[in-house]
Design a protein that fits this description.
single chain, alpha/beta, Rossmann fold, five-stranded parallel β-sheet, two-stranded antiparallel ribbon, 9 helices, 7 strands, 51% helix, 11% strand
């Protein structure tokens, strides 16, 4: 019973309620003999529904995430972590500012890799918008809070996107004579990141983290209920695929 209730909730919340309203509008238009308009409403409702269910979004995300597998043997001389957004003035345990969910997962993975390898951590990410935090500076504070020594942390705090992550990180790597970076970022972000670093002439060891979907596909009832998270997932994938195409075009020039 609880799963049926959860399934129904999807049609009462955003974006499911719009699917219901569009479907209802289609029925009303059909009754009013405005069949062409009714078909348009039904088509839009179907498109919105397909873009908001996990049965679709999970498959797209899974294809994007599993382009690389974490290496069984971590061989490199520095752990490079890419940012993914941060708040500016939100309260934290030892200061202000917090990394967004994906960036926080990347940071945690890097700290665990540091404990395993002892390699220095280079965090890349700047202050992207006026109301967001400087990702690298927040990350450094949080890494110190996770018992990573300050002298084992490098910060690249100027970059505003993945291409700049690669460009400015490359400069720091050269300055510190580091040549074998282990690249840590979300699995969905890894393909684009590798291309951007390759464009800068940097060969990285991909270490994907922050997986959003399980490796094994599931088509249980909850995967067919509309959800904002599924729409967000598809939007994330679309952004990545556009970025991948752009990176390939620039790399081939």
């Amino acid at each position: 019973m609880i799963y049926l209730i959860k399934f129904a909730y999807g049609f009462l919340l955003l974006p499911g309620i719009f699917v219901v309203l569009l479907g209802a509008a289609g029925i009303w238009l059909w009754i009013k003999r405005s069949k062409s308009q009714a078909i348009g409403a039904f088509a839009f409702a179907l498109l919105l529904y397909l873009c908001s269910i996990g049965a679709i979004s999970d498959g797209i995300m899974r294809n994007l995430e599993h382009g690389y597998a974490p290496p069984s043997d971590v061989a490199g001389d520095v752990i490079v972590v890419l940012g993914g957004g941060a708040t500016d003035d939100t309260p934290d345990i030892d200061g202000e500012g917090n990394l967004y969910g994906s960036a926080g997962n990347r940071l945690l993975a890097a700290a665990r890799l540091y404990r395993k390898t002892g390699l220095p951590i280079l965090f890349s990410g700047g202050k992207v918008f006026a109301d967001t935090g400087n990702e690298a500076e927040i990350a450094k504070r949080q890494l110190i809070g996770l018992q990573v020594p300050a002298d084992r942390i490098l910060v690249e705090n100027r970059s505003l996107n993945t291409a700049q992550n690669a460009e400015f990180t490359g400069e720091l790597l050269k300055n510190h004579h580091l040549t074998k970076p282990i690249l840590v970022t979300s699995a969905f972000h890894m393909k684009r990141s590798v291309l951007d670093f390759r464009k800068e002439g940097i060969a990285v060891v991909p270490y994907p983290v922050d997986y959003k979907v399980s490796l094994r596909a599931s088509y249980s009832l909850n995967k067919w209920s509309p959800s904002s998270s599924a729409m967000d997932s598809i939007s994330t994938c679309l952004k990545e695929y556009i970025g991948i195409m752009a990176a390939k075009l620039l790399h081939n020039k």
